[in-house]
Write a structure and sequence with these properties.
By secondary structure, the chain is of the alpha/beta class. The protein contains 13 helices and five strands. α1 crosses α9 and α3 packs across α13.
């Protein structure tokens, strides 16, 4: 009898794990900007608008796509923008869904990139004495190559992502213009409290070598967009001052400048524009708040500038 119970428990756990593994990333793979769900009563818009996609990590999600759409309409610009920012996104992760992005036929893709996406992992293996005194560091180092891809592909909450996928299938995205991270108001944390509340993370350097998986993924993303005649615009993700150091950021800037020249891509540097402003939720996210709209306004200016330039 005990064996039957144990077998049943293991079977249930296995089934749940299988469901999670199938649905965790399926949302971003099957996303369709025109999908309203099989039970939706929404009418399909008759007036076609060119699509603009914003992609990037959660550092980009506070860009208010609804506000930008309102402004584009008021300026008689026939575009519709969708903020497809996703948790823990990186070039390595985004390349897996790039075909789906392309299949949605956006006219323009705006990519928010940060130095943290190219962070260099520690290459110094703990010595024997350190391993004995601090076994945690030993296991972190030993399994880093295994765990890094897992962390990049598994969202923070498999249950939440699975439920999100199911809701998307039946009812469409909960928020049309922010389909992957719900756009809810978040509080502003005073700058003086950020370091106390969130610590002082250290960017240990960036890996921008030709062997870097992130760099090669970014190159492939750029080439795929070019091949499909999709205009790509890059801006750098804003970070609170305590979350970066100048060494890695300078190399990151030079890399983007080189890519801008090589691939003829407009690049806008926003990462250090908001250091002293009271607009932050934490050290890497600008708050979703009426008093923190400057980030959205700056992205809107970039969009209008690029659209206008292309129309000439």
């Amino acid at each position: 009898m005990n064996y039957r119970i144990a077998f049943s428990i293991v079977s249930v756990i296995g089934m749940v794990a299988l469901i999670f593994s199938l649905t965790m990333n399926s949302y971003i793979q099957i996303y369709d900007s025109d999908w309203n769900g099989i039970f939706s009563n929404q009418e399909i818009q008759e007036n076609y608008k060119k699509k603009i996609f914003i992609i990037g990590s959660s550092s980009v999600y506070s860009v208010n796509a609804t506000h930008i759409n309102d402004q584009l309409t008021s300026n008689n610009l026939n575009y519709e923008i969708f903020n497809l920012a996703d948790t823990s996104d990186s070039p390595r992760k985004r390349i897996q869904s790039i075909e789906n992005v392309i299949s949605n036929e956006p006219e323009i893709v705006i990519y928010g990139l940060g130095a943290w996406e190219f962070e260099k992992k520690s290459s110094s293996q703990p010595d024997l004495q350190e391993s004995i005194l601090n076994p945690k560091s030993f296991f972190l180092y030993t399994f880093e190559d295994i765990m890094q891809p897992i962390r990049e592909n598994i969202p923070g909450s498999p249950k939440d992502r699975s439920l999100l996928t199911a809701k998307y299938f039946f009812f469409g995205p909960e928020q049309k213009y922010h389909p992957f991270i719900n756009f809810y108001k978040t509080p502003i944390t005073p700058i003086k409290d950020i370091e106390t509340a969130w610590g002082n993370p250290e960017l240990t350097g960036v890996d921008l070598s030709n062997e870097s998986i992130q760099i090669n993924s970014l190159k492939n993303i750029i080439l795929e967009f070019k091949k499909n005649n999709i205009e790509l615009i890059i801006f750098t993700n804003p970070y609170q001052k305590i979350s970066v150091n100048n060494d890695g950021v300078t190399d990151f800037e030079k890399m983007l400048e080189r890519f801008s020249d090589e691939y003829e891509i407009p690049v806008y540097f926003l990462h250090d524009d908001y250091f002293e402003m009271e607009i932050w939720r934490d050290n890497v996210h600008i708050a979703v708040h009426k008093d923190a709209q400057i980030f959205t306004q700056d992205v809107l200016k970039i969009i209008i500038k690029e659209i206008t330039a292309n129309a000439v």
